[in-house]
Hints:
about 725 residues
Amino acid sequence: MSIVSSIRYLSTFPPNIIIKKVRNQLKRKWKRSTYRKQVTSSDLRVYNTSLTFARLIDIPKTDELPLGLDVVSRHYLNHRFDLLGSGWVHNAYETKALGLESYRYDQNLNVTPDAKGQWLSSVVSKNHVKFSRQCWSMILDLNPDYTPIDWQKDFKSGFRWSAQDWFHGQGKKSQNKLGVDIKVPWELSRLQHLPQLAIYAQYEDLETRKTILEEIICQILDFIMVNPIGMGVNFNCPMDIGIRNANLLLTLDFLMPIDDSDVITRHFIDMLLQYIAASTIHILEDIEYREGLTSNHYLGNVLGILFAGAYIESHKEADRWLSFGIQELQRSMDRQFFHDGSNFEGSTSYHRLSGEMMVWGAMVSRKAHNSRKDRLQQVRARGWKYEAPLFDMTQQVYPNEDFLYTSEFWSRLIHGGKFSQDITKPDGTITQFGDNDSGRFIKLQPIGQLLKSPANLYLNLQNGYTDCYGEDVYWDENNLNHAGYISSIAALRAYKPIKVQYAALEHQVFSKFADEDGRLQQFLANVVERKTETFERSKALFVPSNHEKRSFEFERVDFHNDLNIHYYPDFQIIIIKNNDLFLSLAGISNPNQHHSLGHTHNDKLSVELQVAGKDILLDAGTYVYTPLPDLRNTYRSAMAHSTITVRQEEQNTALPGNLGLFNLKPEVRFKLHALTKNEILSTITYRDIIHNRKISILKNSIVIEDWCNHSFEQHFNTGKPYSNGYGKRIG
């Protein structure tokens, strides 16, 4: 961020917060300078301390191989990854990128892996080469033909960062380079494919299983080998480190009971746990905690620390890590989830991401706490040196709670799952308001479909993808299906959701946890679900003179049959649906949302409409963030949504420059005047603009009427532009 941008950003805060931010930034820079000397001065990874590992979660297995698990696993075994719209790409040091929207970079390292590991001198700094060669030797012992993965590359654009450089300068390398997406290596570095590979392995015979386990260990060693602590792009974002911690620990937990051939050695376990412990310290040193204005990023930091504290039980700091994780999970629920269970990011997709972190964190921490309760009672904050605070036990909530967290915590957790159920259309996809970066915390059950010709569906794959990487079997992940998250919450309450919302593997994991924790299951069964109260207009409403009307007519439908109405007053979203109809309306202007509105769109009073399983009106989605700022702004603009514009102005104005990509001024206010089975009437105001929208639900038609105090233009998005997941472009 430039000095001018920093000043503009700071100007949005009151003076006392500005002073604190400047002071903390100076302190952070000083800490980073000392930390940099520590991580770059020598090869720190000499793993010679044995750490005990607590097994917490049993590996799930269904009667039949889950649909898609074999397809994605075969891709992973061959180092092919489909991330952020890339299509299934073999990611190696020599892989040539197809480019993003005509932007392509040729920055491959010219390396030829040799048995002695001389090639690693081109990949890591001289201080880390010795240890990296040890890792390479371990890999070759398991698989002499192993092909290394290039973890530092955006394999969509071809741009490459470097593990020879300190983490903090990585973002500047790609700054203002069009087409380059730092999210690609970050996404790969989460290692979310490894738990799926571990699950897949148990379905194979013993010999094949051994090969799969060896490959998993090789990939982990490969990552450790070329990603020294604090170095390269994959230590640039603490959130992704936290997600990586959780997935690595869960993978090890899944592997241990199915390791019939003793592939997992004590030496490997020591290396992995020490690496995760060092990664956890790195998160704490660079934690994304800013004066309490935390976000999903901070929640990812917390989960990485919590998982490390729960699993690496003999580490000298493990109890404090676990205590901190429990403390901050409770505080993050209080800050980031509203009373109605919805998330404060203003995005239905980010609701899933944060909700998954909450439910996994709650399960893992409760299981670990049950066996270490006495030790955790002794935790003290004295000597805790990190920016995010750790409180003494006398200030904690959980020692006095029967179920570790407060009743309100569990209530919001349950209602978070209900929120995703309610925003789900009959075809299993959710209404897509706000940003969608396809982010997940832990993915077990593949949710998607097999495609024969992906380039026929996705415009972003029409640049030669099928010629270079096209596979006979193409698995297309459904980023708009929340089944994994919904099934996790449903399992805690001992019920099975409907087919399009059901993920067997997540449901099995959380069902077992609930069965083992019967008192909690009984308590959660009694959480009262909030019901939407319908109401008619109570008083006369100011009606501006400018008026437009649009009617959508249909045949062989009945919109009045068994109609369900859901209104989430904190998130400010309305859903009306039955077997024929799904209609949603976005208000999403709660002043208590995240202060930056960074993941919200200018979608106020926008509508999504699906009739008889066919999408009629669509939310534009996201497509990309920083690689193409113009398209970022296009997809989140008011003109891309089914609402109106006045003078082609945006509803919430973006801050100037690149700062505005994730910072909007909170100018819109939303008011709901009437909500019945036949009518929605609502208003937004921003600056000098008043916009009333009335939606009439007739038996076989939907009528949308708009009034405004200025001349305006109606917009109805029927699929252009449209993205159903980050990096995926359909229209």
